[in-house]
Design goal:
single chain, outer membrane lipoprotein receptor (LolB), chain A
Length: 407
């Protein structure tokens, strides 16, 4: 028979054990609550971390003109440069709305000696009228440069927007991934006025090199891609084919096809198409002027509205370069992917900087580093209508010690 003392002792032991179990449960609950709070905070931060990143002030576009794809202007071989080519800027100005009738030009190699003194303003032509231009050039001697001949050739010219293909060149770029410098990238660009070739190479950490190539010709609407090839790191190639005979766009990534509209571009030929249009008439692209491009990717196509933001200074490892800033506007509601391009007149309007911003805030940036093979602004095999001198092809460097501008 147990004593009251034994009963009291057992009850005390059981009470202590119960208290210990309760304490452990309480601590476990506290730890679980803390872990849950941290998890919720982490998820919230992941979804809203862009809020804490310094971003440029919100740009509210003020559209002053909307330009759509249209034919480029051509002129017969032997006709002199238009008399209004140089005074075009003061004549039109930024205040007056203009008709975008600017020109695609290419000097014929056989006429280069006869026009040596006027090399800064070569003869206009385009791939769409090459046969007519060739016969016209053969029928007319070098004396066509006389002042009265241009009017005789006028019926053979076709009106349209001015267009001047940038000079060929291999350019090197500093590349940044979320502001961290990586290995240099390159843009290889060549054109003879009939065809073009563009290869963009961007090395990225851990995933390998991203390469994009566009090959095509020049037609009545400017650059006309024949094939676009995209290769991201170790993944296989995605090929987009532009069949100009059947007016269809085909993909290796999907069996679907798209209709091929006039003036269609791929993601990178669009940059050079824009550069060619701006190079043809820089004064036509004032802040607020927006031009539409139909752009295909590796499985789809859509309209890209590209707005002129204005003239800015791009800081590079070689100093500061004056450039004109263009930005792709949102294509649809909640479109957070953004593309910015800075074209530099001192580089023949080739890109001085490119930035692609993903919806999650990731940025891939290219900043001009230098020339592997400098663009030859007097190359007679290239389509050109400006009067840039060899010396002016070098960028205006004003700050040798400046580092690349961060996104």
């Amino acid at each position: 028979m147990s004593s009251p003392f034994a009963v009291r002792t057992v009850s005390h032991v059981q009470l202590s054990a119960a208290q210990r179990r309760s304490s452990r449960l309480r601590w476990a609950g506290v730890l679980a609550a803390v872990a849950g709070a941290h998890l919720i905070a982490a998820l919230w931060f992941e979804r809203h971390h862009e809020t804490f990143k310094p971003v440029a002030p919100e740009h509210v576009p003020v559209q002053v003109a909307l330009l759509k794809p249209e034919r480029i202007e051509t002129q017969a071989a032997g006709s002199p440069p238009p008399a209004v080519a140089k005074p075009a800027a003061p004549k039109h100005g930024a205040q007056k709305p203009r008709e975008h009738a600017l020109t695609a030009t290419r000097p014929r190699p056989s006429e280069a000696p006869a026009t040596n003194e006027a090399a800064s303003a070569p003869v206009d032509t385009s791939a769409a009228s090459d046969s007519a231009v060739a016969s016209s050039a053969a029928a007319r001697p070098a004396a066509n440069s006389g002042p009265g001949i241009g009017q005789g050739n006028a019926p053979q010219a076709t009106p349209g927007v001015k267009f001047s293909v940038p000079p060929s060149g291999d350019l090197q770029y500093d590349t940044f991934y979320n502001g961290v410098r990586n290995q240099p990238g390159t843009i290889h660009w060549t054109s003879d006025g009939h065809s073009y070739d563009m290869v963009v190479s961007v090395p990225l950490p851990f995933v390998g090199t991203f390469s994009y190539s566009s090959h095509g010709h020049v037609d009545a609407f400017g650059l006309a891609p024949d094939q676009y090839v995209e290769k991201r790191g170790r993944r296989g190639e995605d090929v987009t084919t532009f069949n100009h005979d059947t007016k269809q766009i085909g993909f290796t990534r999907t069996p679907d096809t798209l209709a091929l509209p006039d003036g269609a571009q791929d993601r990178f030929s669009m940059v050079m198409q824009l550069a060619s249009l701006v190079r043809g008439d820089p004064d036509a692209y004032q802040p607020g002027v927006t031009r539409q491009f139909y752009v295909t990717d590796n499985d789809s196509g859509e309209i890209w509205p590209i707005e002129t933001i204005g003239d800015e200074t791009v800081r590079t490892g070689q100093g500061s370069i004056d450039a004109r800033h263009f930005m792709r506007l949102p294509r649809r509601e909640n479109d957070r992917r953004r593309i910015d391009v800075w074209l530099a007149p001192s580089l023949g309007w080739l890109p001085a900087r490119l930035v692609q911003t993903e919806p999650n805030g990731t940025q891939i940036e290219l900043v001009w580093r230098g020339k592997l093979a400098p663009p030859d602004v007097n190359d007679t095999s290239s389509s050109s209508s400006d009067d840039t001198s060899p010396d002016s092809a070098q960028p205006s460097v004003t700050d040798p010690g400046a580092g690349p501008e961060k996104p």
